[in-house]
Design goal:
Elements lengths: L7 E6 L5 H7 L3 H7 L3 E5 L11 E7 L5 H12 L1 E7 H6 L11 H8 L23 E3 L6 H12 L11 H8 L4 H5 L35 H10 L4 H8 L7 H8 L1
Parallel strand pairs: 1-2, 1-3, 3-4, 4-5
Length: 256
């Protein structure tokens, strides 16, 4: 990155709910501090719009769902020195990838009165399926603290590191009582990567796997325990086939 000018950063959106962009906007003082270190040249939700500009770092939210998306993401990759996919949609296809389990043509015809106006791909794909991704930050929405940490590492010339520990470690650090042990509540925390701050378990609910697969995923052991606490098989499949259904580790468990 040039020492003569501030690094340029762009935030791009594809098929998504905008939740990860809102997470960035909600950073408050941290976002103001970041704006003093970099030039945010494209971030439509925040104001600046210049998608064609070459940048040092591109943050990409959303999945690839249309032919136009393929063209756009390839252009963004060519104009970016470093590309970071942020959030479940960008890293695994997100909720949009649920349609990958159905017939897309039938699905479109059942929803839209004029499906001939639409141009969609058969599959909703994560960014890494189309172009090289330098760093993936999972979550629904992404953890803005992880985004800031990654950007600061890059600005300091350090390779960013991502926490791949399971949510269970966050529960232990915060003194959250295990909902599986205390309440027989099915919880995906043991195979889901940390980043949410154990949000659901801290409120007595099982983890929904919003942050995608942890480094070690023993889906068989988790499924067997769910069966022991009388969770229906179909409900188990739903737990693996939700927000990050297209993540390989969860997809294999869902289809088995």
């Amino acid at each position: 990155m040039s020492e003569q000018a501030r690094p340029k950063v762009a935030v791009h959106k594809f098929s998504s709910c905008d939740g990860c962009q809102l997470a960035l906007l909600n950073m408050g003082d941290d976002l103001l501090a970041l704006s003093q270190l970099v030039d945010i040249v494209h971030f439509a939700e925040a104001g600046p719009v210049d998608e064609e500009q070459e940048v040092d770092i591109a943050l990409v939210e959303g999945s690839i769902s249309t032919p136009e998306d393929i063209e756009r993401i390839n252009g963004i990759r060519q104009r970016s020195k470093y590309l970071i996919s942020i959030g479940a949609c960008a890293t695994s296809g997100g909720l949009q990838a649920l349609r990958n389990m159905a017939d897309t043509d039938n699905w479109v015809r059942s929803v839209y009165p004029r499906p001939d106006y639409l141009s969609v791909l058969d599959q909703s794909s994560p960014i890494a399926d189309l172009v090289q991704v330098d760093l993936e930050l999972w979550g629904c929405p992404v953890n803005s603290g992880q985004v800031i940490a990654a950007l600061r590492d890059l600005l300091s010339g350090v390779t960013p590191r991502v926490d791949v520990q399971p949510v269970c470690m966050e529960c232990k650090r915060q003194g959250v009582v295990c909902v599986m042990v205390s309440r027989n509540e099915p919880c995906m925390g043991q195979i889901t990567r940390a980043g949410c701050g154990a949000l659901c378990p801290s409120h007595g609910r099982g983890c929904y796997a919003c942050y995608g697969p942890a480094e070690q995923v023993n889906s068989r052991a988790v499924s067997e325990h769910f069966i022991e606490i009388e969770v229906p098989v179909e409900e188990i499949r739903v737990k693996f086939g939700s927000i990050n259904s297209n993540a390989p580790a969860f997809k294999r468990a869902r289809d088995s």
